[in-house]
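Following up on my earlier thread - several people asked me to post the actual chain instead of describing it. Fair enough. Here it is, all 376 residues.
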Amino acid sequence: MKKIEFFRHCIDDKDIERASAVLRSIFLTTGTEVGEFEQKFAAYTGQSHAIGLTSCTAALHLSLIALKIGTGDEVITTPMSFCATSNAVLHAGATPVFVDVERETGNLDAELLEAAITERTKAIIPVHLYGQMCDMVKIRAIADKYRLHIIEDAAHAIEASRDGFSVGQLADTACFSFYATKNITSGEGGALTTGNALLADELRMLRQHGIDRGAADRYTKRYEHWDMPLLGWKYNMDNIQAALLVGQLERIETLLQKREELWRAYEKAMEGLRDVDMLRPAEGARHARHLFTVLVPPQKRDQLLWAFQNRGIGVAVNYRPIHLLKYYREKFRYREGDFPMAEEIGSRTISLPLYPYLTYEELAYAVQVLNEELNR
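Reply from S.P.:
Thanks for posting it. Predicted structure:
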C-alpha cells in the first residue's frame, strides 16, 4: 500500500545547519537570528515592522491587547476557521461575533459585515482561508466608516495578495503562523506585522512580560536595569525557530511555484469527477496555495476520510465551523442553521495532500482513490 503523508515540511540541510549553529552557541532565546528573520519578513510582506512570536494565536491575542480591545467589546470574525481565531478574542476578554462566509471562497462575506456591527464592535478579524485573501478593500472601507480596527488572520496566506495589496497593508496588524504544516515552518511559531511604529514598540514589550529590555539587551550589552511598564505575556520567538525560518523565507517563492503547479495538476486531474466541487479563488487574486480542499456530498464525507486513511493517504478537515464546537454551542447557544454557508463547507470539505515534495504520481493516486470511493 502506498503511504502519502498529509504534509511534509521543506526544511533542508542548510536550515538544519543554521539551527545547529544556534544550538552550538551560547544564546538560544530571542536575539540576533530573530532580528534577522524579523527584518527579512517585514521586507517580504511590505511592512515596516515584524515581530516574532510563539504562534499566530499569540499574535492575535497581543494585537487585541495592544489595540485596547477587551471586556465588553465585540470583535467580528468568521466561523470558518480554526478555533484559535475566536479563542484569542475570548482570551482578550472580548466577545466574538460571527458573520457567515462566501460560498465561492469560504472567506468572511463582507456584504454581511455592516448588519453585525453594534455600538460595542471594536474590530474585525478577517481570516484568509486556505491562502485566499478576503476582500480587504471592502472590509477596510467598512472599518473606516465605523472606526473599527482590523486584525488579519493570515495563518494560511503569507504569500497572498489581492487588488494590489499584500497581506497586512490594509490592517492594523496581520498575524502569521509557522506551525508544523504551514508553508514555511519552525514546528511552532508565529509573527505579526504592522506599519505602526508605536504599536510595534508596545507589542515587543507585550511579547516578553511587558518589560522594556529583551534578554539580548540585558545579557549581551552593558547592564542597565529594566522596568515593566505593561502587563505582558511570554510569547517571544527564539533564535532556534528563527534560524529554521530564514532560509525557507528566502525560498518561499520557489516553494509557492511548486505548490501552484501541483494545484493546477489537481484541478486538471479532477475535471469531470462526479460529486466533487471546489472553492474558487477571487478573480485576479494571488493565492498562497496553503490547503487544497475539495467539497464532497456531506453524507459521504466521513466515509471518504476513512477510506483515504485506509488506503494510505493523509487527509484533514479544515474546518468544522467554530460555532458548532461544544464550547461555543454551550456558551453562546449557537445552533445548526445559524451560519449556513460555513456549515455547508464544514460538512463537505476534505483537505488533500499539498506540499512541494508531493509527486505527480502521488497526486494522481489521491485523485484515483477519491474517484473510486465516490463511485463505490
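The chain has a mean pLDDT of 96. That should answer part of your original question.
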